[in-house]
Design a protein that fits this description.
The protein is of the alpha+beta class. Helices cover 28% and strands 30% of the residues. It has 3 helices and 5 strands. The protein has helices spanning 39-47, 51-59, 77-81; strands spanning 3-4, 10-16, 21-26, 30-35, 66-69. The protein has a 5-stranded antiparallel β-sheet with strand order 1-2-3-4-5, covered by helices on one side. The termini are close together. 19% of the residues are buried. This is KTSC domain-containing protein. It comes from Paenibacillus nasutitermitis.
Length: 83
């Protein structure tokens, strides 16, 4: 599930509960993966009135990150399932 963030920089985020990884999708096409995010932290983002601020608070807690660039705007549904 892609969760809209409504930010000038970030378009969406998504969460892989099996791997505890939060993916942040930037308008530039870059995707950053934040491992070790628990489902309660992602639930806080879902429920937040300001998702951007909540996302920033959670991701800036010293999590390692992996960055990769894709053109997510052109990805099909099968590709999204694998992220």
């Amino acid at each position: 599930m892609l969760l809209p963030v409504e930010s000038k920089q970030i378009a969406y985020c998504s969460y892989n509960e099996n791997e505890s990884v939060l993916h942040v999708y930037y308008h530039t096409g870059e995707i950053i993966a934040f491992p070790s995010i628990n489902k309660f932290e992602f639930q806080a983002i879902i429920e937040a009135t300001n998702r951007y601020d909540t996302l920033m608070n959670i991701t800036q807690k010293g999590h390692e990150l992996t960055s990769f660039r894709v053109e997510w705007q052109s990805m099909n549904a099968d590709t999204w399932q694998n992220i």
